[in-house]
Amino acid sequence: MASKPEAYRGCLLGMAVGDAMGMPVDDMRWEAIEENYGPRGLLGYNPGSDFAEITSYTQVCAYICNALLLSVSRGKGDNKLDFVKLGLKEWTRSQQFARDPERSFCWVAKLPGLRRRHCRDARMLDTLRLWFSGIPQPGVNQYNTPGSLTSAIAVGMFFHEQRMEPMQVGELAAQIVSLTHGDPHAFLSAAVLAYGITGILNEPSLPLADQFRSAISVMFHQFRERYPEAKTVAATLSAALERAQGAEPMDEVMEDLNCYSAMDCLAGAIYAALANETDFDTAMITAVNHSGYSSAVASVTGAILGAKMGDSDLPDFYLESLEVVKPLRQLADDMVSFTPTKGLFDDDWDQKYVQGMPLL
Asked: Sign of the C-alpha dihedral, residues 321, 322, 324, 326?
């Protein structure tokens, strides 16, 4: 069983691996994947690249991890959403301007790999650009794409009894995703993912199937009175979970799941992770080779299995060419090691979460 630091590192690194592996086939039909990469599809990182680049799925999660740690380093701890907005603003700026910002609140904003312009959800970015430019919105949009789904991974990692109540995990994840994706199917799926990640990190001995049954149940009972869509989300994710226990061909199931919306991408990730619970490599291959948003599905799949396995059990060949390993390990360690007085006695912490500068 992975130690807590290993599990947290595995969660972020597994997410980045899936994101980078899925990028070249993201939003590509299976027929095109097969034509370009052969009958089994893509079996690793894009063979034409010298290193594996991550996209906005990993970037957004990293900025929100940074922002949540800011909320307890520079805030009162009860204004987490305000700091999340600050983190999203800095990520949005990174997607508009290539230059390194002279000053930033988030130290991750100073790193090329976490500011490279690889946004996978133009609608999300358009919403944030209008939001931060002061242009009033006509109302909550109804976007259901998975662009900010990985935000929930950051929330799930952030849970600690000194930081928040257990039921706040789903509430905060839903609030963050609803800033850019107003369809309840999207932000309720985020609540399930956040509860799932929290469960894996805090009860590692519990099987993944039980973790997600519990996460789905908690989400449903928490939100069903406010959002009738909770029933659909619970049913869709539960069906994917049960299919992972069956013997259907995995490629056929992934194609059938139609992974384009946030809810269906999470269903695909739950299926790919649970159907390959002890085999990270096969899980990644399953998660990227289908019609749909491969980076979204694979990043969530990687986070789930990485949290379960720990970074030491992730195959070395995935990490050797991944561009953001060191900063993601630092973020993961900071999520584990935080205490309310950390910045008072730790120069490295002060540099990152007070001065907003990365370690050299």
From this structure: negative
